[in-house]
Write a structure and sequence with these properties.
The protein is an alpha+beta fold and 210 residues long. The chain has seven helices and six strands, in the order H-E-E-E-H-E-H-H-E-H-H-E-H. Strands 1, 2, 3, 4, 5 and 6 form a six-stranded antiparallel beta sheet that branches. Strand 1 and strand 2 form a beta hairpin. Helix 3 runs antiparallel to helix 4.
Length: 210
């Protein structure tokens, strides 16, 4: 029964594989993901705000393909920070410093119990849909053939190069607004997708070996 449930659930997941930092969907289209820094727009001067808006407008005008902007919110886990403070408190030479650190730890613990401390991560998903070429057609018609497998690998690298050009274009365009964008690697994409499809398990560590 459990196996049937897992199989049924996987039908709704559009991902076929994640390879070399690239998401390959079941329709054989590609996705790359950039993680982006944030800009505190409200603290900027009027001239700086105008420059950011103008830079972002120019960035959008340059694009000839669609992008998806994703904001991921998750509860901040302060347990490692509190554990570090506890270690520091034990090593203090004076009783006063130990007392102050313990009071600070209790304050942080009490505050987090009363309010959820959230962190936000910003991503841009960049698509690429390869055209059907003779190489793609041969790979589709002769799956399992070593020659077709080599052709499929070559096709993947060509499509990956096209997608990486788009990723570089988007990263450069966002840079004009003061936003730093960096492509995610394979493990980072797996973690992001895991959190997206398992929103109730955000506080549990991801296991890639399961």
């Amino acid at each position: 029964m459990a196996a049937k449930t897992v199989g049924a659930t996987q039908q709704f997941v559009p991902v076929k594989e994640i390879r070399n930092g690239i998401i390959v969907l079941k329709d054989d289209s590609y996705r790359g993901v950039l993680i982006c820094s944030s800009v505190n727009f409200g603290l900027k001067s009027a001239d700086e705000q105008h420059a950011i808006i103008l830079g972002f407008q120019n960035f959008l005008n340059v694009l000839d393909f669609s992008i998806q902007i994703v904001v991921n919110s998750r509860k901040m886990d302060l347990r490692p920070y509190l554990a570090l403070l506890s270690e520091k408190a034990a090593g203090q030479e004076t009783e006063l410093m130990r007392i102050q650190l313990h009071e600070y730890i209790e304050f942080i613990r009490s505050f987090t119990d009363q309010a959820n401390i959230m962190t936000k991560s910003f991503y841009v998903v960049v698509p690429y849909s390869p055209r059907v070429s003779p190489v793609n057609a041969v790979g589709f018609l002769h799956r399992g053939n070593p020659v077709a497998a080599n052709a499929a690998d070559l096709s993947f690298e060509e499509n990956r190069a096209q997608l990486e050009q788009r990723l570089a274009l988007v990263a450069s365009g966002l840079g004009s607004s003061g936003i730093r964008a960096v492509p995610l690697g394979t493990e980072e994409i797996i973690e992001l997708l895991y959190r997206s499809f398992n929103p109730g398990e955000l506080e549990n560590p991801i296991r890639l070996d399961a």
